[in-house]
Amino acid sequence: MKKINLSTEIEELLPEELSTMEKLLIDRAKEVSKRAYAPYSGFHVGAAVLLENGEILQSSNQENVSFPTGVCAERLLLGYAGANHPDSPPTMLAIVAQRAGEEIWAGVSPCGVCRQTINEVENRFEKPITMLILCSNGNVMRIKGIANLLPLKFDDLNS
Ligand code: THU
């Protein structure tokens, strides 16, 4: 038997350590989270993506009474980006969340399906996506590339 140890890298930044663009993306994600449709979970998620052409797109999560039918903010956003801006790769993705009725920001981390979706977008454009995830303490986790969130990811039908 041999053991395989995998390592991933996540940076945690203080708010003042964020670049102007990183701050803007987090702000856009916060703004769009206010338009979440999340009557079942009460978990309002906002995502904002920066495309290579400088455009910023936003989405919130959109739920359904048939729970699995609901769509996460990131997945909806990346689907929209791919459908409408197929020539401009997503470069940076900010994700934030807030529970209904609360002022503070909740910790959030993309679900498995969204991680796989981010992986597909990276493969499609052959470019890693930097993810910014707002933590409940106000700091931001910066993750350069989905491999850091999805070790042993599935991306080859023939391997
Ligand atoms: N959700 C997202 O939109 N993104 C995430 O990263 C985590 C979870 C949504 C799905 C569902 O509408 C609600 O949050 C609770 O799981």
TrEMBL record:
This is Cytidine deaminase. It is an enzyme of class 3 (hydrolase). PROSITE patterns: CYT_DCMP_DEAMINASES_1, CYT_DCMP_DEAMINASES_2. Belongs to the cytidine and deoxycytidylate deaminase family. GO terms for molecular function: cytidine deaminase activity. Its EC number is 3.5.4.5. Residues 20-157 form the CMP/dCMP-type deaminase domain. It comes from Algoriphagus aquatilis. SUPFAM superfamilies: Cytidine deaminase-like (SSF53927). The keyword Hydrolase applies. Keywords: Hydrolase, Metal-binding, Zinc. It holds the Pfam family dCMP_cyt_deam_1. PANTHER family: CYTIDINE DEAMINASE (PTHR11644).
